[in-house]
Amino acid sequence: MRTLRVLVAAALLCLVPAVSAHAAARLTYDLTYDFEDGTTQGWGPRGGGVSVTMTPDAAHGGTSGLLTTGRTATWHGASIVAPFVRGVGYTVTAYARLVSGQPAATIALTVQRTPTGGSTMYERVAAATVTDGGWARLSGNYLFTAESSDVQLYAESSDATGQFYLDDIVVTPLGDPTREPVGSDFEDGTAQDWAPRAAAALQSSAEAAHAGSRSLAVSGRSASWDGPALNVLGRMAKGDKYALSVWVRLGPEATAGRLGLSIERRTGGTPSYERVASPKDVPAGEWVQLSGTYTLAYDVDFLSVYVESDTGTFPFYLDDFSMKYLQPKPIQTDIPALKDKVPFVMGSALTRPDALGVHGELLARHFSGVTPGNELKWDATEPREGEFTFADGDFLVDFATRHGMTIRGHTLAWHSQTPDWVFQNADKETLLKRLETHVRTLVTRYKGKIAAWDVVNEVVDENQPDGLRRSKWYEIAGLDFIRTAFRVAHEADPAAKLFINDYNTEFPRKREALYALVKRLKEEGVPIDGVGHQLHLNIEHPPASSVEATIERFATLGVDQQITELDVSVYTDFVSSYDTIPPELLAQQGHRYKELFDVFRRQAANLSSVTVWGESDDVSWLRSWPIARLNAPLLFDDDLQAKPAYWGVVDPSRLPPPQRRLEAPAGTPKVDGKRDLEWDLLPDSPVARVGEVSAGFQARSSGKGLYVLAEVTDPTAGKDDRVTFTVDGTPYVVKRTGTSYSAKGAGGPKAAVRPTPTGYRVEALIPTGTDVEVTVSDSAGASTSWTGKVTAAPAIKLTSAAHRTPVLDGAVDRAWSAAPEIRTATWIQGTSGATARVRSLWSGSTLYVLAQVADPTLSEQSPNPWEQDSVEIFVDPGNGKTKGYEDDDGQYRISFSGRITVGGTFDAGGVKDHVKAVARTVPGGYVVEAAIELPTIALAPGTLLGFDTQVNDAAGTTRTSAVTWNDDTGRTYLDTSHWGVLRLTQG
Ligand code: XIL
């Protein structure tokens, strides 16, 4: 920054009027008023009768100053059109002295301005007590952010008639304050501009320090939200992203607490609160970092960052705060726009910050549709009855309209993000009235602008007998809330397409429950146009083929369909978390997106749009749900650059070759073209459909070689239909006709082929190898492959359950002797300890499990149930062997005293009430008898269940060993794919 002294009157005359508050050009150098050129340099009188002149009578530097006389009111003085630009901060310094004989007074530099649409305001920049004995220095910072006119800087005095001199007034722009880092280390012994939100006391303290020797001690908080806050108004620019970080530690008397980092912003005086870092545990004596990013998406007149607890008012220390502007990478302009590469509307969810800056550019470039992610939900649009707020909704609708995008309205009636008042004191009539008003108001407001509405969201629960979620909506109004919502939406905008939207529709049970509901509503004449499939998937599951099956199923109802919330989590469970996501996983995700978009393109006649739930990984909701963790489920990365997932959609040839993995458990199936029980112990790995061809693939390892199975779907038989198994570079071909050969000429592999209803089955025995490719080709030239590594694994254990009903009393009655006994002998923790002998029976829809545990010393002292002496029973109806839990997969834990705990999907909602158990201690151990309801499948002789048992052995408060029947991964509680198999028998 260079210093320019304003010396020449001519230059000054040009400069001063030009630098108004509206000037786009910023002052990038100091502006000094030294009054050495014989003029007042633009300063003039403020107030009637006031006179402002250049004078040689007094000077701070040089030989002259500015004299103000004739004042008769405190606000009278000397003023100038202020050289301030909105959004830029300035330091203003000046020197003041009273004319000889005047009593001491406070002289202030003040800004007067009039915000657009508001009333004139006066803001003090600097002030000091001034006497006639010498020059006093005035200094302060100033910034304004709201569009304003008539911006003036003036000097005034608390003495209404006081006369004063001014000199060496310097205005220093602070560069662009929104790009400058902000930091506090408290090393100077002050609170460094941190101020309490309410009653809290803040003090620089040497009692604790994260770095250096001091921190900020916070005590005397009056509420969980009370604590230290830093005013960052003007330090963030709208649309820009900032990284914030601060270290916290519990105060002296505190033993436990959770702290988080938040932002308070106000627009037009109305406050909003946003989390930068959700509260997390701060163990006593440790410094914990709270960090996150924040994008300012609003015009604000107040902006403050603060630390708060989730509960309690305990004291804490804070240190080493930093806030830094994150320079965005420019978006790529040399890659194709997604929307040009797909035969349907390509949509993205967006929230307000996503419409700004580079995020806005990315949206505009790639997407032809948008869905406001939160801004049209009930809590955002009608927080209190009859009080509608559309500022954010309008903003996004305007953004989309300006860019010619199709808008999906999300959502009119949902059980989540709906304020409590909606259901309070509501009988059916009141509730439907409230719904009607809400739906009519929203749909009318956006009539002609919003093309499609998610009228109802997530109303299906396939675990209820009638398939309907027991929401407050349903409990109070039954199906009528759905009927009313559709009717009113249709009345309000007959041209809008009305959707029913749900997740997990790619799973057969949910698919069928939704299908039945849509069919029924259509038959009743409810104006329902389409079905929205959210499609929150994960990297493994479910296969693209189930998505296709769902689309095909709903196509038979003649409804429009849309993919509404697509994302592909890199996790299969809700516990794991990566520090950095392995690149192989992102490549695998690219192939997953490719397979999904193959389906969407093939089904384009049934799909009017495909929407991803967020434009880039940095804004994904999966960063905070179901737990806070790094996730990367979308097409663009945190820097808005194309991921393999993008190329999977746009140009799969740019992806690295797929590298799948398959375990080949030990096994020796008969090569006869029949599907032995052996093959049913595992699901087939999908070989995704290309053209009309697809397949499922499995392998078993043995001393004789690798047994392989391909279940080929290929409806039209041709003489060149074939499966090629390539092992470490050598191809082995089995033709649909039954002939087999290898590249080495004569003597193909041992193989058998049989027709199936949709194609044919191949079984073969080929040499053992690691790198395997399975290619299925049809005579018309279509072919699809599975490529990856096959590794040998232990055989999958299989046992059976006899058809009997035991008495559930903890006594081993005779019925049990009908079932074979298995033993837990796979140690996942330790090498010895408590074990169990286990038997199973079944009848009706109930599975009974008996565990006789050898465990002489019993403890339930740990607060964690898995660290208490206990038995865990794992059941996967249908033996899906999906990695994560599906909603009917359960982990049922029974302690030696009969305490039951259940695990499953995130909330174990589909299984938690399905177990009854009795436990009884016996000499040398205990017996558990459990009855598990399995309502999601029909139990019959021959039914296979994924099944395992684990025994936890505790001593005092710790677990000393754990042993299972089959699963050796230690991940039984997260992953169903390594459980053994239980087969129901008639006997
Ligand atoms: C999510 C939003 O993306 C989050 O920002 C919010 O905190 C919770 O809701 N199914 C839906 C969407 O229908 O509305 C949800 O959106 C994601 C799951």
Structural features, described:
The protein is built from 12 helices and 56 strands. Strand 8 and strand 9 form a beta hairpin. The longest helix is centred in the middle third of the chain and has 20 residues, at 583-602. The chain is mostly beta strands. 46% of the residues are buried. The structure holds (3S,4R)-3-hydroxy-2-oxopiperidin-4-yl beta-D-xylopyranoside. (3S,4R)-3-hydroxy-2-oxopiperidin-4-yl beta-D-xylopyranoside (XIL) binds at residues 373-374, 457, 534, 565, 621.
How many distinct helices? Answer: 12
Helix content percent band: 10-25%
Shape: elongated
Q: Report how far apart the termini are.
A: 91 Å
Q: Uncertain segments of ≥5 residues (pLDDT<50)? A: 1-26
The beta-strand count equals 56
How can the largest sheet be summarized? 13 strands, mixed
- Into which percentage range does the β-strand content fall? 35-45%
Structural class: mainly beta
Overall radius of gyration = 36 Å
Mean pLDDT: 94
Structure ligands:
(3S,4R)-3-hydroxy-2-oxopiperidin-4-yl beta-D-xylopyranoside
